């Protein structure tokens, strides 16, 4: 059984492959992000004026969930929260607001389309309430078709409050639903229990991230797990760019799935395909590039950071940096 918390996995993956590349763009579709938090100082973030953002207005309050998710991706080095892809470019595309907590298909389609217009390679859709019915309208089907044409990767949580079912019915080609495991390897509550609908599972408990009013809190849910996987996907796409290979978010999704521990290998037939440690990320990079080199896997910045933290790298998910 897995005996790893989400916080341990998050810390182990920090600054892998240098923390990403600036020419890789990740879009976060959730609520409004509190960009005044210290972890975002210097982060290459661009707010997108989506239809949901326009209705909310300039004085709309920030979302605690969206701020936490954004910090897991874009939190800058040596700040209160450090993200997995701090060197990547970020797009913030609100689809939820305090005035409208339910995301309609038109708003989701608008946010996806605008994100693609700004060059999104990876789109992370936060969990929340999505408007029924569960069959796709023309606007969303068109947005997904554009997403397929650009080979963008959509990452969602596998929880019951996600939009995975709707996106599947739209024919999304590169869709990666993420489930969260507790510290003993069981699926957290409120998730899809159909293993066929889970692309990958990772530890998702007690992950520290930014909160409103400059605070730092821990969260445990599938949304957090999806944020960690989105950060890992971003740095893997940066690996492809660094070696001069074709920019291919779809190949990144395949590498993540193919390098997961197979179902049943750790906890019986009801166990999802799982990532539990740094070796999974390194193996995925080797799968993408056809080679693995230790010097290539550790950037100068990562080497400096780990020396600063007084930590050593592990071959499993038991890494605990000591400040």
UniProtKB/TrEMBL annotation:
It comes from the Bacteria. Gene3D superfamilies: Peptidase S8/S53 domain. GO terms for molecular function: serine-type endopeptidase activity. InterPro entries: Pep_S8_PatG/PatA-like (IPR034056), Peptidase_S8/S53_dom_sf (IPR036852). This is Peptidase. GO terms for biological process: proteolysis.
């Amino acid at each position: 059984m897995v005996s790893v918390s989400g916080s341990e996995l998050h810390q182990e993956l920090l600054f892998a492959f240098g923390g990403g590349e600036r020419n890789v763009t990740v879009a976060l579709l959730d609520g409004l992000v509190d960009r005044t938090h210290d972890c975002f100082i210097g982060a290459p973030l661009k707010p997108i004026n989506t239809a949901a953002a326009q209705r909310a207005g300039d004085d709309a309050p920030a979302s605690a969930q969206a701020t936490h998710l954004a910090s897991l991706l874009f939190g800058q080095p040596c700040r209160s929260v450090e993200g997995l892809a701090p060197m990547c470019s970020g797009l913030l595309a609100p689809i939820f607001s305090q005035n409208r907590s339910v995301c309609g298909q038109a708003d989701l389609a608008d946010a996806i389309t605008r994100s693609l217009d700004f060059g999104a390679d990876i789109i992370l859709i936060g969990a929340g309430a999505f408007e029924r019915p569960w069959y796709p309208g023309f606007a969303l089907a068109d947005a997904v078709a554009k997403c397929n044409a650009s080979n963008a990767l959509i990452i969602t949580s596998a929880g019951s409050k996600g939009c995975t079912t709707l996106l599947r019915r739209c024919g999304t080609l590169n869709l990666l639903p993420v489930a969260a495991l507790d510290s003993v390897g069981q699926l957290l509550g409120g998730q899809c229990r159909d293993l066929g609908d889970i692309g990958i599972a990772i530890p998702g408990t007690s992950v520290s991230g930014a909160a409103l009013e400059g605070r730092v809190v821990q969260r445990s849910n599938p949304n957090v797990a999806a944020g960690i996987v989105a950060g890992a996907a971003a740095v893997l796409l940066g690996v492809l760019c660094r070696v001069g290979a074709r920019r291919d978010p779809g190949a990144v999704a395949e590498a993540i799935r193919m390098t997961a521990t197979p179902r049943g290998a750790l906890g019986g037939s009801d166990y999802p395909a799982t990532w539990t440690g740094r070796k999974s990320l390194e193996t995925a990079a080797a799968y993408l590039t056809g080679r693995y080199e230790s010097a290539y896997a550790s950037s100068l910045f990562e080497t400096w950071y780990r020396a600063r933290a007084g930590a050593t790298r592990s071959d499993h998910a038991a890494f605990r940096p000591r400040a």
